[in-house]
Specification:
428 residues; mainly alpha; Growth Hormone, Chain: A; 0% strand
Length: 428
């Protein structure tokens, strides 16, 4: 860390940082649209196309499968390309592809097969967007501001969690479900326009005069960096398990089916329940700094990882009537844990990674931690049909007790009090 860096307490607010504010606003718009789609897709499948739990699981898997297939070469390309342009192109690309679904519905062509193809194409572009996005922040703000930047971006995600499902559920009471996706198309456009106004360019990247290395060598360098570093390896294993079992993975394949079929909730009611629960994401972002100061970074990561998945047990115990409240509380606890966990593990990853490896580090991490999402979603949906949705929720909740083991077994994480470049709190 540069000894001349401005102390955190005297640094100007990031809200006065033009480029960061544009990035934050773009993230907010894109995340709100993504949350609308996250809620709408399984509801469309269930209510318009009468899908099974297996089909809902496959739809959830389709959008994340590209992270398993192309994350590693994508990281190399992101380190070679202009990251700002990558973000813009992928926003526009997702906008165009997603627009196919409401058009197909209008012409009577909507089908599970088409939704799977669109999910794969959107997911393919999301791979590049997500990797470029996390690699872009360290070039927009100073190293000392990375944790604060990630906290504000987590607030952006929290706002989306709060507004997306309820707004989507409300609109579904007025519009045909597939037409709600038009909103996400619009948010991708807004995001692309905002990012296009960011003027700061990444300082990182290969020397234009240097000979181009083989892709396999560059991929290997990224994988060796991540899995040869005990801190990054522990984070990758823990996050991979969280994603396998929780939101985005097996739980996503089961939650909408459980709520609409087993508990007989309406899409509007489910949207309201998720909105109330999603307040946990905002709460997590707000209290994060206090939690880290109080517990230390390592214990915070361990506790947040458990909080992100253990409340599945509350969902499994939910019945008709009061079960709606249990689901809302469970989602709130899980998203609070995810919020705190992501702010700190992403900041830690970014701070310990050289600038020229940011893209490949993020790609290797995405390969490891998001590669479990399609597996979890597909297996969750399939097993939900075979053994029942509620029994599968109990199994997921019991397995959730194991997710923090990689962190507990990694001394470099378990004993962390502060992140790189941060001062430890004064002792009495």
């Amino acid at each position: 860390m540069d000894s001349k860096a401005t102390p955190a307490a005297s640094r100007p607010s990031l809200w006065r940082h033009r480029d960061f504010t544009l990035l934050w606003a773009a993230q907010t718009a894109s995340q709100i649209g993504s949350q609308i789609t996250f809620f709408a897709i399984p509801v469309i499948a269930l209510t318009v196309l009468d899908a099974s739990a297996t089909q809902v699981g496959l739809l959830a898997a389709a959008e994340t499968l590209p992270f398993l297939l192309v994350s590693l070469p994508a990281g190399v390309w992101v380190d070679r390309w202009d990251r700002r342009r990558t973000l813009i192109f992928t926003d526009v690309g997702r906008m165009v592809v997603l627009a196919v679904l409401p058009l197909a519905h209008a012409f009577g062509l909507l089908s599970i097969g088409l939704m799977l193809v669109v999910g794969l194409l959107v997911g393919l572009q999301t791979v590049f967007f997500e990797i470029a996005d996390q690699a872009f922040l360290p070039s927009v703000v100073e190293t000392e501001d990375i944790p604060a930047g990630n906290t504000r971006l987590e607030v952006s995600r929290s706002i989306a969690y709060l507004g997306g499902p309820s707004f989507s559920g409300l609109l579904m009471g007025v519009l045909m479900a597939p037409l709600v996706l038009v909103l996400n198309v619009a948010t991708y456009l807004v995001s692309a326009v905002l990012i296009s106004r960011i003027t700061r360019r990444p300082a990182a990247g290969p020397d234009p005069g240097a000979p181009r290395r083989r892709m396999a060598s560059e991929i290997g360098e990224g994988l060796r960096f991540v899995f040869g570093n005990r801190t990054l390896r522990g984070i990758a294993m823990c996050t991979g398990l969280m994603n396998l079992l929780g939101l985005g993975g097996a739980l996503t394949a089961l939650l909408t089916v459980f709520a609409l079929n087993d508990l007989a909730l309406t899409p509007g009611t489910l949207g309201l329940i998720l909105t109330l629960g999603n307040a946990g994401a905002l709460l997590g972002a707000v209290v994060n700094a206090w939690v880290v100061r109080t517990l230390g970074l390592g214990p915070t990561l361990v506790g947040a990882a458990l909080l992100a998945v253990l409340p599945i047990l509350l969902i499994a115990s939910a019945g008709r009537g009061a079960g709606s409240l249990l689901i809302s509380v469970a989602i709130g606890l899980m998203l609070a844990g995810i919020s705190v966990y992501n702010i700190n593990q992403i900041s830690l990853r970014q701070a310990i990674t050289p600038a020229e490896l940011q893209g490949r580090m993020n790609a290797s991490m995405r390969f490891a931690v998001w590669g479990t999402l399609p597996l979890g979603a597909a297996l969750g949906g399939l097993l939900g049909d075979l053994v029942g949705v509620r029994p599968m929720l109990w199994v997921l909740g019991l397995l959730a007790t194991l997710v923090c083991l990689p962190l507990l077994l990694t001394r470099e994480i378990r004993t962390l009090r502060t992140g790189p470049g941060q001062k430890a709190p004064a002792t009495a």
